[in-house]
Amino acid sequence: MPSENRLFIVGIGPGERDWRTLAAVEAIKAADFVVGYKPYLDLIGDLLQGKKVFSSSMGKEVDRVKAAINLLEEGSVALVSSGDPNIYGMAGLGLELSPHPEKVEIVPGVTSFTAAACRAGLVFRECMAVISLSDLLTPWQDIEIRLQMAAETNMPVALYNPRSKRRDWQLIRALEICGQRDVLVARDVGREKEEIFWTSSCILRNDAALRDKIDMTTLVIISGRGVFKGDARIESEINVVGIGPGDPRHLTIEAKKILKRSKKIFGAERYLNLIGDLFPGEKIAHTGPCPERMAARFQEARDTAKNCHKASILTGGDPSIFSSGWRVLDQSRGVIPIHVSPGVSAFSSVASKAGAPLINDFALLSSPEDPSSLSSLAAAGFGVVVYNVKGHVLHSLLRKIEPQRPCALARDVGRLGEEMIILCARDLLDTNPDGFRFTLLIASANSYIREGRIIARRGYETKYSY
Predict the structure, then answer these.
(1) With contact defined as beta carbons under 8 Å apart, do 311 and 238 qualify?
(2) Considering the domain boundaries, does residue 259 fall inside one?
(3) pTM attached to this predicted model
(4) Which long-range contacts (CB under 8 A, 24 or more apart) does 300-309 make?
């Protein structure tokens, strides 16, 4: 393979063109070949002119990856995934089968569950879990154990692959396990037939006609502790904008358009510095405690909107994941509509840089919790991402984790001064990191480290010989 040829594993977002990132568009345009599942390729048809395109049907994941790797002899290749390639996507298999994983670039995308949350004005403030209900690659007993853990701790859960034509009982069982909670149903997010509505687990269990609306392009988000439920609109003069992890290349096309049209842009100074001089609007950073800062930003944004100008309030990563964007939604309730623009989540950026550590079910924690809770999640097979970790607490967080479990400790990924250490849990303990604002990632079950990248096996080996 010529040394300059690269394999890009690209997240194209849930479907809406404007939710693609600039980096995803750049990677696809730079590739000589584009490989993917045909319905996903149809979503990016406008980017395929002049490309040699190879498509296949559902269930041919291994064939697609092998085709992409073989094509590297002739040029660079973009292997596309919908949403984000690290969330039940092609990142794990692509790295696993590649003879040169160090030459593979994972391009993160807007995830489907965060896009749905942003559309609905939903913000996760403490924790959340992501679980696939498909038992084709994961034994149902493992899925049920993870659902039980989420139920016992009242953790919000995003359910992928909730129901198919031949598979209905798993969703009913998941709703039974999680008990009486509010449920967000989001079908075809960012696509022509998008439908999003709130219901309850009890109603959904008992209403067969309502369940018939749910299929493999639907996300079911079960509410839980720390969840804020606001009201978001598709368009507004006031925008809460997720700017991604830091590198402007990971802005979405929508974010770029909104910021270019904004007369005033509000946010933390570090966020304003990240977008630099790319956007002409007046940039304003408020100081003081968080509630007062967010109140001042909303008030000034409201005044700007009253004068028929667009205003943007920035969040790092994605607004639905551990951001203070909920304070803006709270203040706007019944006053003025807000549009929430999704971004590449910080956890996704860390995962993509590390390799493919979250390709199976995973959990997100906004800050270090009881170490026994962390170890229990990991023991159940979850990948776990913990935000806001201080170096001196690392030992307490990892001491009960399986010693050989791959981990990544990261800070400022996608920004100047980026740091990342990839080691097994036992070896990471010996590093004694100093500082704070680390993100700790514990890879999901069936993971290993190869050529400095974490690779989690998705379970395709149970279906295919490769």
Answers:
(1) yes
(2) yes
(3) 0.95
(4) 300/264, 300/266, 301/238, 301/264, 301/266, 301/328, 302/238, 302/332, 302/335, 302/336, 304/237, 304/238, 304/263, 304/264, 305/236, 305/237, 305/238, 305/336, 308/237, 309/237, 309/262, 309/263, 309/264
Radius of gyration of the chain (CA): 21
Which residue, 344, 379, 407, sits at the end of a domain?
Answer: 344
Q: Which domain holds residue 311?
A: 238-344
Each residue's pLDDT expressed in tens, for the chain with a length of 466 residues: 455 889 999 999 998 999 999 999 999 999 999 999 999 999 999 999 989 999 877 778 899 999 999 999 999 999 999 999 999 999 999 999 999 898 899 999 999 999 999 999 999 999 999 999 999 889 999 999 999 999 999 999 999 999 987 888 999 999 999 999 999 999 999 998 999 999 999 999 999 999 999 998 999 999 999 999 999 999 999 999 999 998 999 999 999 999 999 999 999 999 999 998 889 999 999 999 999 999 999 999 999 999 999 999 999 999 999 999 999 999 999 999 999 999 999 999 999 999 999 999 999 999 887 788 899 999 999 999 999 999 999 999 999 999 999 999 999 998 888 999 999 999 999 998 988 899 999 999 999 999 999 999 987 766 655 4
DSSP conformational letter for 21: B
Sorted by sequence, the CB contacts under 8 Å of residue 136 that are 6+ apart come out as 459, 463
Tokens representing residue 408 in the block: 């990544």
Helix (H, G, I), strand (E, B) or coil at 348: helix
319: which DSSP letter?
A: T
At 275, which helix (H) or strand (E)? Answer: helix 269-275
Residue 142 domain flag:
no
DSSP-derived 3-state class of residue 325: helix
CATH code of the domain covering residue 297: 3.40.1010.10
